[in-house]
Amino acid sequence: MLKRHSEFFKNLLFLSDLFLISACWLAAYFIRFFAPIFPVTKGIPPIEPYLWLLFPIILVWGVCFSSLNLYRPRRMGSHLAEFIDLGKANTLCILILVALTFFSKTFEFSRLVILYFWLLNLVVLGFSRMVFREILRILRRLGYNQRHVVIIGAGTLGQRVVQMLQVHPELGMTVRGYLSRNEDKVGQLLQGVPVLGTFQKASEFLARQVDVVFLCLPPNVEGEAERLMEILSATTAEVKIIPSIYEFITLRAEAEIFSGLPIITLQGSPLYGWNLFLKRWFDVAGALVALGVTLPLMGLIALTIKVTSPGPVLYRQKRLGLDGSSFEIIKFRTMVLNAESKTGPVWAQSGDVRCTAMGKILRQTSFDELPQFWNVLKGEMSIVGPRPERPEFIQKFREQFPQYNLRHKMKAGITGWAQVNGFRGNTSWEKRLAHDMYYIEHWSFWLDIKIMLLTFWKGFIHREAY
């Protein structure tokens, strides 16, 4: 029944695509010659050749879209991934169309019509696919178009998969139960799903109507895995393997194929390629603007520090940044000279006698951080990122929080996700680290923009900044 439904939706989407492609071709003709952005100098050509070209267009797009597997099920895929696939296929088809029209000696087709056709296809097909997928997701939430799922492995990983499927009912995957290697678990409910049986009876349960199998095995059952794969190869169920290494992933993980071997990269930085270029460009532009705007204020602060307390205006301190490399952070001096000569490296506390009168104001308003935009220009810091810490404190943090070193996968920042959520100064280090990990794992250019806006919106004053 499910396969018949799947074929119906596939055929429906295929016919819808061909109809929309035809409409886009005719729309491109009318836009070019009846609502021209560029003036028509040779008169409006007849529409008949454009109508005749519809037949090879439908053939080329139909064959290419089917060959490139654009009608496969995408229950767990994103709209962006589908749009990118559509864009690649559409561009290939356009190149074939250009080649066909080049060899046409009887009629010269407008290049602008072809350009409009390509753009319209991208927009219209992308939007129609998004609408189509959303309608399917709504139907699945209502209980239609469901796939029956069995989870092989009732451990932490298997339960995590069940939890994920329960949180996303739009995937349309109904979990019938687990298969476990432990007979003691049979009959138990885990995440509200029953353990149906053991691995030994896998062939019996998988012979029933099962559409998808998630293989979630611990690393110490390699022998069982081989036998289960033999059983699964004899079924028509779609098999999805969740590697046991997933339990140890603490940061972004990326999968790639090298010489036929799947390779999973753990703890990689999200910044590479265009992401790295974009963040650096944003940092340089933002730092230049910030230094220009705050220059009068920094001049006034420097003068006040010089007048009110002996010693230099600026204070340099060793911090650790990207990949654990050290650099000297620049701040306005807020404490008396040789403040740590007796105490050694310690956190500033409420009512700290080492702070100067001006220093207390600077720390509470965060204005002592303004010179760090120079660190940003030098490439040692970023405007947004985890706050850098002193080497003297980091060893202690590493002992308490094994994941602490992962903060150094990104450049240190002047402001960050932890700071805009209230975790700065004398606050929970565990929660601060959790927010830093969230930022690195979910980094995007737009998240940086959001953090900057929240920094301005919530202000620079914090009650825990001493």
Protein model, in words:
The chain is of the alpha/beta class and 466 residues long. It has three domains: 2-141, no CATH class; 147-248, NAD(P)-binding Rossmann-like Domain (Rossmann fold, 3-Layer(aba) Sandwich); 274-458, no CATH class. The protein is built from 15 helices and twelve strands. A hairpin with a 2-residue loop joins β3 (189-190) and β4 (193-198). The longest helix is centred in the middle third of the chain and has 35 residues, at 274-308. The chain is flat. The termini are far apart.
Q: What spatial order of strands do you see in the largest sheet?
A: 3-4-2-1-5-6
Percent helix range: 40-55%
The helix-and-strand class reads alpha/beta
Question: What can be said about the biggest beta sheet?
Answer: 6 strands, mixed
Subunit arrangement of the protein = single chain
Order of helices and strands: HHHHHEHEEEHEHEEEHEEHHEHEHHH
Q: What count of structural domains?
A: 3
Low-pLDDT segments, ≥5 res: none
Number of helices: 15
**Rg to the nearest angstrom?**
31 Å
- Indicate the mean pLDDT: 81
Shape category: flat
Distance between the termini: 67 Å
The portion of residues forming beta strands comes to: 5-15%
DSSP strand tally = 12
